[in-house]
Design a protein that fits this description.
The chain is of the alpha+beta class and 472 residues long. The protein has two domains: 6-305, Electron Transport, Fmn-binding Protein, Chain A (Pnp Oxidase, Chain A), CATH 2.30.110; 325-445, UbiD C-terminal domain-like, CATH 3.40.1670.10. 28% of the residues lie in helices and 22% in strands. It has helices at 6-15, 31-41, 67-74, 80-92, 175-186, 200-206, 216-224, 305-324, 355-364, 386-396, 399-402, 437-442, 455-463; strands spanning 19-22, 46-49, 59-61, 98-99, 108-110, 133-135, 138-143, 150-153, 157-161, 164-166, 190-196, 229-232, 239-241, 246-252, 280-288, 294-296, 330-335, 343-348, 373-378, 403-410, 425-433. Strands 5, 6, 7, 8, 9, 10, 11, 14 and 15 form a nine-stranded antiparallel sheet that branches. Strands 17-18-19-21-20 form a five-stranded mixed sheet, with helices on both faces. It has a four-stranded mixed sheet with strand order 1-2-3-16. A hairpin with a 7-residue loop joins strand 17 and strand 18 (343-348). The longest helix has 20 residues, at 305-324. The two termini are 28 Å apart. The chain binds flavin mononucleotide. Flavin mononucleotide is lined by residues 136-137, 151, 153-156, 168-170, 174-176, 206-209, 297, 299, 306, 309-310. Flavin mononucleotide binds at residues 136-137, 151, 153-156, 168-170, 174-176, 206-209, 297, 299, 306, 309-310.
Length: 472
């Protein structure tokens, strides 16, 4: 099953009992955020707010907010193995987009832009946010002026004026930042389009590290199994998804800044700093579908949609990095959900004494990752199961032998465990939670055998489970 647009995906979620519509009037200033928080904590369904303040346009949140929904979008079971397999297939089998004369996203064209009076329900997501954020789960589309490469990314946008949106980059190395530098050197404003309410494949490529120069529309096509339909933007050479609910077009001045952005409830779960010099998008044109659906998400402390999609994105990056680095014996990886990228657990088929150390070196140096704590476990421990990881740490680690602290490692500016003057640097922690086979050998002993039933006996019992009177 594949989805042309957000509406088709919502239909599927509805049929799965994974879309909850809220008909009660909800306050966009405080209530919507609190409802999202509670719903994510309850691992609830996607939400559709039909009466946000006085708005007629519905707001949907959390369409990819759980592994089950992520799996439904890709048509696979929600296991890392199957999700990884689907991504690899799409990367190796991209499908080029097709170009349409016009599309649903152009059904209504607004002559004047006034983001304060527009018909879209833009909430204040966290009570302490500096204002309403229009772009929270969307595409920011830009084009490389040299190669014509089109990039889609997800970078948040605060409403800063009637035709002015902030553009926030977590770091200047985001692809948008790289492309912006090229426009800057040409001394030309950078054309940008924002697409809101899109087929889930586009949201997924927007949050993923797709190699520079690779057209993300092609990868989205690969994920969908058919070409993404594009139309020309009204005011630039950009190509935008025909299926989008809403398109905003504008440009980023290369020599002008807005004086403030934020604060915003950042992804680790704390309020960020206000930024005092930020690039902005001057919005020139707005088109949308008839009766559009607005899409956004509640960020901040996990669990939530933002952390869930990044969990898979980051884990795929680390897994591929380990495979490319030539490290042998990697069984499974998890850049954990709760840690928002700060913790990685890797399971290995241990082959030599320093095997775990080699793995940890590669994980902590993985480009683009902000991981500061790495645990390596044996192949009998599932890195996706925190209970099992804790058991391995408890039963296989001697702190003075297996734990190492490295000072002044690279870190994220969002790591509030570090004081502001030292942000960007962090201590790294490496925990080798594999069996201490060499220590035992040195004493002429062997590590104790497991007391658990062997897998083949467990399999026998599982197949006979109903015979014992259990339901499933
Ligand atoms: C909900 C959500 C919001 C995000 N907001 C931002 C943001 O404001 N700034 C940013 O640099 N990255 C943000 N990210 C991460 C980027 O989308 C991600 O790094 C992506 O790879 C960027 O695209 P690029 O690789 O083409 O630069 C966000 C991710 C999610 C899931």
């Amino acid at each position: 099953m594949s989805f042309f647009d957000l509406r088709e995906f919502l239909k599927l979620l509805d049929s799965e009992g994974e879309l909850h519509r809220i008909e009660t009037m909800v306050d966009p200033e405080w209530e919507v955020g609190a409802i999202c928080r509670e719903n994510f904590d309850r691992r609830g369904p996607a939400l559709q707010f039909n009466h946000l303040g006085n708005h007629q346009t519905p707001l949907v949140v959390g369409v990819l907010g759980k592994s089950k929904l992520y799996g439904l979008a890709l048509g696979v079971r929600p296991t890392f193995k199957e999700i990884y397999g689907k991504w690899q297939w799409a990367l190796e089998n991209p499908i080029k987009p097709i170009f349409l004369e016009t599309g649903p996203c152009k059904e209504v064209k607004s002559e004047e832009v006034n983001l304060f009076e527009d018909p879209f329900p833009v909430p204040r997501w966290h009570v302490l946010d500096g204002g309403p954020y229009l772009g929270t789960f969307h595409l920011v589309i830009s084009i490389d002026p040299e190669s014509g490469w089109i990039n889609c990314g997800m970078y948040r946008n605060q409403i800063l004026g009637k035709d002015c949106l902030g553009i926030h980059l977590a770091n200047p190395n985001q692809d948008f930042g790289k492309i912006f530098e090229k426009w800057k050197s040409l001394k030309k404003s950078m054309p940008v389009a924002i697409a809101i309410g899109v087929t889930p494949y586009l949201s997924l490529v927007a949050v993923s590290k797709i190699p520079v120069g690779v057209n993300e529309y092609n990868i989205a096509g690969g994920l969908r199994g058919s070409p993404i339909e594009l139309v020309h933007a009204e005011t630039s050479d950009l190509l935008v998804p025909a299926c989008a609910e809403i398109i905003l077009e504008g440009e980023v001045p290369v020599d002008d800044y807005h004086s403030q952005e934020g604060p915003f409830g950042e992804t680790p779960g704390y309020m960020g700093e206000m930024e005092n010099r930020i690039n902005y998008i001057k919005v020139k044109k707005m088109t949308h579908r008839r009766n559009p659906i607005f899409q956004g998400t509640y960020e901040g402390k996990p669990p939530n949609e933002s952390a869930l999609v990044m969990l898979y994105t980051r884990t795929i990056s680390v897994y591929n990095h380990l495979l490319l680095s030539g490290i042998k014996g990697v069984k499974d990886v998890c850049v954990t959900y709760a840690s928002r990228g700060f913790h990685t657990v890797v399971s290995i088929y241990k082959q030599y004494p320093n095997h775990a150390k080699d793995v940890m070196n590669h994980v902590l140096g993985c480009p683009g990752l902000i991981c500061k704590h790495c645990v390596v476990v044996d192949e009998d421990v599932d890195p996706w199961d925190t209970f099992q990881v804790e058991w391995a740490i408890a039963t296989r680690v001697q702190a003075d032998r297996d734990i190492e602290i490295i000072k002044n490692g690279r870190s994220s500016k969002f790591d509030v465990s570090q004081v502001p003057s030292k942000r960007g640097l962090s201590s790294w922690l490496r925990i080798d939670a594999t069996k201490p086979l060499e220590e035992y050998e040195r004493e002429g002993a062997s590590f104790p055998l497991s007391s658990e039933p062997p897998e083949e006996l467990l399999m026998k019992v599982r197949t006979r489970w109903k015979d014992y009177g259990f339901k499933d």
